[in-house]
């Protein structure tokens, strides 16, 4: 298998099409995974040559812009990984969907993707997904109901620059705003991955006593906002008033602690807004009875974390499969990126070093999907993940 | 990143590696158990039985089987299986969606099926044979040019995960060694069979050589003996005429000169004349017997010297039985049973009659009691006519069985048989593209079978 990375200037639609034409390969790519600004993904969707270049696309809009191992100027780029793998099998399916139909849509699309890969009924080695914000848990539930938890599911929620709902995805045929794209991979090379957050636990935690999907109503039978602000106070942070709190809460999210092998891993929920009734709207679902922990982070933790996650994924590829890395995808939460705008180049540099200069692409997303070592696929916020594709010398 | 988090990260990393090590440990344990089990039981059972037991325990498989793919990958057959229904499954065509070369069949790639009902690749015959199977794990195995696959089945969906797939993939080289063992056993059996076949062919060739040598010898001897025997036979007949003339002259002399009677009496002339006739007659009998032997030898050497036509075997059989019955009826009962109304073969009536007469006479000579019974049964099976001649005689001894079709082999007393009957009969039957065999013999009797192709039937049938 060959993985090609391209980083194209998407500021001008015609120019983007010309660059895509110039990428022509003797073999059509089995799959292309891409990130770009909302403008870049829209431009890609209007370039008819895209389907000639690749049979399947999972192109996701990133907050602000995509990033890659190539340093770029400007703000509209399309970062692409092209998979040319005649021995492997790949299939992509997509749906316009909503929170009521997402589970069934997820199952139907997964079956369609398997059929497109000519592998109906078979477990893929890996699933890559791109949901619009709000549909992530339903998407994962549908996948779990159809094939169980055996296949790692990674991806990132589409994003825009101001949470105005302009995010979009392109599957090679259509532009989707509310829905998802799912890709099944049966590659001829091994894949390693790592999913983590860049935050530390604090001693403050409470049990969710009332919740409605992504609305956290009460903690220990008290209004959630009161408990949250009390924790902030203990941590020398100012309380947050009712209203949007996305940016202010970036370094103080809530975490659901997942125990694995006596080690705690945190799945983060990013507070988006505080309601007048004292409940908190989150960017991921919490359930009544779960223990929620107040998490804390800072610039250095986030900068280091991206490199650490990439380094662990690279090391695992070597340890588990004795394979050399060929290319990578890094997902970095848009909330984290927005919290450290002046240090984002340090993040890229750290990733580049940790991956030892192999090609990679990345996007800043409004939700991250992945799995910890406990083998359960989850959706979280403020998370970082790295997915590394190995080389042909080893089998999956 | 705090120090404690770094330590937690490291711990997690170690735990993941430990998980991998546990997987390898599981694999090692599987291999060790397989070796142990095979070392204990391997010689007494199918090489796959232990393998199925261990894989079934480790991976929760309800059914397992191993398939062999034919060289052009168009069909598969079951080598071994835990399910008896599968073991008896004949070779099956492999489903291919289309004829494109790159299209892979279901056993060509390592794969885990979470729901077989969703896969059109899964062979319909396996769905029919094992309708309860819901999920499957397939691991192809290649040994040299031969393709196999081990298949694990479960009655539940989503049974086999990626880890199980990895374990079986890692274990596949071990399974390959089992398959090699199986293949070696199969090759050894095939080799033994070929050796046995080679030995039989060599023995047959020796026999054929011997028969050919005897045939040539017989032809030469027959030719060489025929001329002197002609002299002897002719001269004996002439001598007999001369002696009749001498006897007539003596009687006339007695009539004209009675005194000669005393002289003749003194010389015992009457006895000499009478004994001379007996001697001539005995010599002629011997000469006739010699002539018959020579004719038999010539028939043995050149059984195909006779013309062939479509003949009514039933009529020949009935006629032969009538002739044989004139001699047999004193000591045995001869019964003909017909399962068919007519029987036609391409051949020579005289020769086939000779064969049947030989066999019936042999049956009769084997009967040494007064309740003799010889049954002749004629049947047809496909394109073959079969005549089965059964007697309740003394049977043939074990030591004689392997020699009865050899020329000049006889169990009869010296002078009673030439030892050419069965060998000539077999030569004749084979000349008719048929076969003659001893089907059974014991102290209660023997059964000989003559099989001949029906007229106009394919010779290869």
Largest interchain contact: A-B, 34 and 35 residues
What assembly state would you assign to the polypeptide chains in this entry?
A: heterodimer
**Rg for CA atoms of chain A:** 20 Å
Question: How many DSSP-defined strands of chain A?
Answer: 26
Percent of sequence in beta strands of chain A: 35-45%
Shape of chain B: rod-shaped
The CATH class assignment of the largest domain in chain B is Alpha Beta
Report the β-strand fraction of chain B as a percent range. 15-25%
Task: Let me know the largest β-sheet of chain A.
Answer: 9 strands, antiparallel
The portion of residues assigned to helices of chain B is 40-55%
Any low-confidence stretches of chain B, pLDDT <50, length ≥5?
97-102, 457-461
- Tally of separate helices of chain A: 9
What is the share of helical residues of chain A? Answer: 25-40%
- Written as H for each helix and E for each strand, in order along the chain, the element string of chain B is HHEEHEEHEEHHHEHEEHEEHHEE
Total strands of chain B: 13
- End-to-end Cα distance of chain A: 12 Å
